[in-house]
Amino acid sequence: MRHLIPADVRVVLTSNRGLRAVLLADFLVLLNELGSAVILPWWLASRGGAQAIATFSVALAVAAFFIVPAVSPLGDRICKARQITSGLGCLCGVAVAMVALSFSGVFNVPALAMLAIVQVLAASFVDPARDAVLPEVTTPASLPLALRLRKTTHAVAGIVGPLLAGAALGVAGVTATLCGSIAMLAVAMLVASRIPKAVTVKPRSGGFDAWWSELRAGLAAKWRVPMERGWTLVNFAVWIFQGPVVGMLIPIKVHALGLQGQWLGLCLGALSLGVLLGSVFGSQMLVNRFGRYRVRVGLGFSEGIALAAVGLSMSPWLMLTGLLVAGFCNAAMSLVGATHRALAIPQEYRVRMFAAGSMTTRLAGAIGPALVGTALASHSVTWVYTAWSLLMAVCVLGFLAVPRLKEFLTLEHGEIEDWYRRQYPTVFR
Fold this sequence. Notes:
Radius of gyration: 21 Å
Number of domains: 1
Largest sheet: none
Mean pLDDT: 80
CATH superfamily: MFS general substrate transporter like domains
Structural class: mainly alpha
CATH architecture: Up-down Bundle
Low-confidence stretches: 203-208
Order of helices and strands: HHHHHHHHHHHHHHHHHHH
Helix content: over 70%
CATH topology: Growth Hormone, Chain: A
Number of helices: 19
Distance between the termini: 49 Å
């Protein structure tokens, strides 16, 4: 078994306790999140139909749009390990409340939406820290490997989480499955407490003015770097269409085909299996052959075509195949440039810029479900799923117009650290 693990992975994991803690905590959190991605949508679809999912998704996404910028400036001022641990404690509390609601036997979309909004508040406190903590627990030379390991653990959790949740729903029901979420979050909180505590800048006083100043710094830095601005705008357009076809439309499609909840688990598991294969085998192999830029654009377009095939499919097995291919394309594409982007941003701006990017994604995540809900009122799920997938593929081609992206992706890792500061010194003073 030991020989199956590459030597460089063994060295990094055995010598870096902080990295081990980050990866294990990430695994458990994603196991819970992706298990919940089966439980809640299936609960909503089976009891309230497509309209319940659309209402829930829009309310959640709109609330998230306001929540994310409100908590994002805290990330650069608070120890990221403590930030992760305290946020996971809040997520445990939300899980307990959901179990109580399920145990009572009451199906109430507004109550579920309110609990989910609190969950988003806690996740928005945790996620920027999780995204930014890797450069603090590893060296720049080891960061590409650490990012690949993180993507791999996410993909494994994405396979195991939906499959476990689907099986648990079939055997034990919603309440017992949600109890498992509490246990996983509690263990994740314990593991996160072992992440090394970092020295942080003492928070400045100033109330709302200080908060607004911090938020504007992150947003302004992202907007004033032309490549970063273009990258963010393309991602925004893509996510309006990609978010629903890999999220809320999958349970609606499964339910429309008359399939059971276990098939939803299998569909999400196939998507995550593709992500795993893409992160382990696809990314570096394709980059070596075609280059980062071509892989980024080509696989993004291919993902949209694969998802369109899922939308047109009337067979569950063809759906699984299409989602597997889409997951592979997504992983290989998203890994390309991730290391460059993380290293290029000055350390003191990473959380704020990641959070600003997350805010635009949340806004797109509100627009997408709202448009889907409107479209489903007059069109079939097959039509909506296919149209959204093709529009996603078209939006990916916007990367061709992003300034200096091709130049940026041809640079080596040793040339990229603090690249934004060197290229735009007036932005990062």
